[in-house]
Amino acid sequence: MTILNNILAVSVREFRVMCTRYSILMVLSGGIFLYGLLYNYMYAPNVVRNAPVAVVDMSQTPLSRHYSRLLDATPQAQVLTNNADLQAAKKLMKQREVVGIVYIPEDFDGRVGRGEEAVYVMYSTTTAFLYYASMQEASAGAMLAVNDEVRPNQVVFLPQKDIQPIIQTSSIDVVGMALYNYTDGYGTYLIPAVLMVVIFQTLVMVISMLSGKEREESVSRMSLHGREETTAFRFFTSLGGGDNNENHRVDLSFSRMASIVLGKTSVYVLFYALFSVFLLGLLPLLFQLPHLAHPILIIQLMIPYIIATSFFALACSVFFSDSDAPLLMIAFFSVGLIFLSGVSYPLELMPWYWQWTHYLIPAAPGTLAFVKINSMGADMSGISQQYIILWMQCVGYFILACLAYRYNMKKALPIT
């Protein structure tokens, strides 16, 4: 019962600290709610349709006008005008009446007629990434359609020996289909992975800030009063009702450290269980993101994911001596964690050292497993490898977290 009482006491104190420290509340509210909502809002269109485009046609030939009509026929773009010059088109872009400009030079038709490579120039606004992607897809698709139409007329530029094999070769129709991405949108592909990274990053930041604050207070009080315990560490050493401070002996047994780590982790699991409902349950419904996984399957995945992340952050507490460093370091790793997960870049093509890093950081297998079950419809057998890795991380980082807290308390307490 003593260990359970210690775990409960640590949980109550950690809960009180998290609810009364403004910096922690700012990270939780900003990182979980604001970031989750704003990121989804930015990609809410998911796929841009009928983006207004200005065509500057300096060629003024039937071929250039045909290209302009094909561009207007694409679902991504809508030609607002094709009679403006370049300066007028730039003015329309500055006034935000168009999001892109397609410039067709004077020699467009002449180069095609001579069998040379035709050139066109595309400008796009940088106010949103999706506009650029839409413009690029529309302009390239229209140009490929023009290329398919004029290609048979270009055989006159080929050697006579090559014409017959080309004519006799049957054409190939290529049909593309985006697997597991029913809208073919950028947000549908990216946001589910980002939500898992948000959970990892904010949890690591919160734990590192709390641990850094304990270390910071320890250094401050030692400089003022010698090797005197801080409020947090004095509380930890008094667990179990013992009064070992009178003879300056402190119980640093593994069971004592385990009760501290488990008590802290129980509070983090409670908080992030609620946050996971918001990020992984409510937001996909509000913004029509993929949500193929059964809720029970998501719960089974999130249990080891949150626990492993908590133990990982507690184990890393030895590297943070103040509460500000985590905000400056951890926030910039989101892009790297997305790549490391294997969602945007195949894990099999990574160098061996990045593959080993994938197995060491909970965000990588957790994100990959969530995308598999939520976006690709996999069952538990499909994520068995990542699931086992997360539980192995729980065991390994629990031991490291206990050793880390023993080290922190040795540095902070007047042990003889």
Determine the mean pLDDT. 83
Spans of at least 5 consecutive residues with low confidence: 224-229, 241-247
| Strand runs, count | 4
Structural class label? mainly alpha
The end-to-end distance, rounded to whole angstroms, is: 29 Å
Helix content: 55-70%
Topology:
Elements: H1 2-20, H2 22-42, E1 51-57, H3 62-73, E2 77-81, H4 86-94, E3 100-104, H5 108-113, E4 121-124, H6 129-150, H7 160-168, H8 186-225, H9 231-237, H10 254-286, H11 295-315, H12 325-329, H13 334-341, H14 352-360, H15 363-375, H16 384-412
Parallel strand pairs: 1-2, 1-3
Antiparallel strand pairs: 3-4
Helix pairs in contact: 1-10, 2-8, 2-10, 3-6, 8-10, 8-11, 8-15, 10-11, 10-16, 11-15, 11-16, 13-15, 15-16
Description:
This protein is mainly alpha-helical and 416 residues long. 63% of the residues lie in helices and 5% in strands. It has 16 helices and four strands. It has a four-stranded mixed beta sheet with strand order 2-1-3-4, sandwiched between helices. Strand 1 (51-57), helix 3 (62-73) and strand 2 form a beta-alpha-beta unit. The longest helix has 40 residues, at 186-225. The protein is elongated and about 95 Å long. The two termini are 29 Å apart. Residues 224-229 and 241-247 have low confidence and may be disordered.
